[in-house]
Specification:
Layout lengths: L10 H9 L2 E5 L5 E5 L11 H21 L5 E4 L5 E4 L6 E3 L1 H9 L1 H10 L9
Antiparallel strand pairs: 1-2, 3-4, 4-5
Length: about 120
């Protein structure tokens, strides 16, 4: 905090701003200018190089998350013992093994239904 000069701001207001992730910077004489700021895990203001490093880390993490959405279909056993299929939509599709067996037995019928109603059905892009 010693990098910034505070003019006219009370320590109480500074503390309040810090809890909101903001800091007061010296503006016109007698006036405070409120500027956004990031705090580290100890509640201290971060240096410019630390802010840049954090920004770079978040950009890399964001890119990995974007790429993660195209990893395909995966299967897991749900907490209640069902089979969950992930990767087809926003939420998993979970059925018990008997339900999957009945659905898979009708696979040819489902394909035929889709082919018959091709003009009525929408595709997710």
């Amino acid at each position: 905090m010693d990098r910034f000069r505070f003019s006219g701001a009370t320590w109480e207001r500074l503390g309040e701003a810090a809890t909101r992730g903001q800091q007061y910077l010296s503006g016109e004489p007698g006036r405070d200018v409120l500027a956004p700021c990031l705090l580290n895990c100890h509640g201290e203001f971060m240096a410019d190089e630390d802010l840049q490093a954090e920004l770079d880390r978040l950009r890399r993490e964001n890119e990995l998350l974007k790429k993660g959405g195209t990893r395909g279909v995966s299967l897991k056993v749900s907490a209640k013992g069902g089979v969950s299929v992930y990767g087809l939509g926003r939420f998993p599709i979970t059925l018990y093994k008997e339900q999957w067996a009945a659905l898979l037995d009708k696979a040819d019928e489902i394909r035929q239904f889709i082919a018959t109603h091709e003009g009525e059905l929408k595709s997710k892009s």
